[in-house]
Write the structure tokens for this entry.
Amino acid sequence: MITDIISLVLVLAGSFFVLAAALGTIRFRDTMARVHAVAKPQTIGLVLVLLGAFIRVVGSPEFSVAQRSDLGLLLLLGLFALATAPVTAQRITRVARREGLYDRDENMSRNDRPAGKTMRRR
């Protein structure tokens, strides 16, 4: 019973983070903010959901040797997401900066503006 409650709390918290990532994608205008809104909460949300599923599987009364492969798959899913999400976000933002996919100038602060054409490498 207690494992069900812990599992439910983790899955709901993870779902909230994934929903926040989806809303951030819709709400933000420029590429950099959208990538940041997707990469961080989506990864945390996925890890929380996987942790909730892990606790649910381990805490079930029918847990046996057959479910150990399920735990291995959950672990591999989490590790793969943690390894690939930051790299993907970094690559997307690097291409966006290189291609000049920014917001309008009046919406950017001084630090967000791209470097002048003499500063950029080609």
